[in-house]
Design a protein that fits this description.
Layout lengths: L1 H27 L13 E4 H10 L1 H8 L3 E11 L3 E4 L3 E5 L11 E12 L4 E9 L1
Parallel strand pairs: 1-2, 4-6
Antiparallel strand pairs: 2-3, 2-5, 3-4, 5-6
Pfam family, one: tRNA_anti-like
InterPro entries: Protein_unknown_function_OB
Protein name: tRNA_anti-like
């Protein structure tokens, strides 16, 4: 009887250990999305994106949050790795920008990470210029 309990306990511990290893390597260390190679889920203007967030933030999040989107608008501000479209869409790039795009109409593809109520900006991450 004691041997049977030990075997069951060992089996349960091995299953728990296997589940832990799967979680650790399968979920925590999964590869990041390659936004640059993904097809956009939505293509819209910077003004339309902000209008959607101002009208209904929860609905806009359900549409755009963590989705690959293409945004078109005029570059109003620029730093080494950030372009702001129409003073309302904050686009963060992985690398430093080499070409100056200020005051030009451009299309940017990236992943929407939400609306910043403090700065009243929509945040886009992993951006590339189309």
């Amino acid at each position: 009887m004691k041997r049977k309990k030990t075997a069951i306990l060992t089996a349960v511990l091995l299953i728990m250990l296997s589940a832990g290893v799967y979680f650790y390597y399968g979920i925590i260390f999964k590869e990041a999305r390659n936004i640059e190679s993904e097809a956009p889920d939505f293509s819209l203007t910077a003004k339309k994106l902000l209008e959607d967030y101002n009208a209904d933030p929860k609905k806009a999040d359900s549409l755009y949050l963590n989705k690959t989107i293409e945004i078109t608008g005029k570059a109003t501000k620029e730093t080494d790795s950030v372009i702001i479209l129409e003073n309302t869409v904050f686009c963060l790039f992985k690398e430093e920008l080499k070409n100056k795009m200020i005051n030009n109409k451009i299309t940017i593809k990236g992943k929407c990470i939400g609306y910043d109520e403090l700065f009243m900006e929509v945040k886009i991450d992993q951006c590339t210029v189309k």
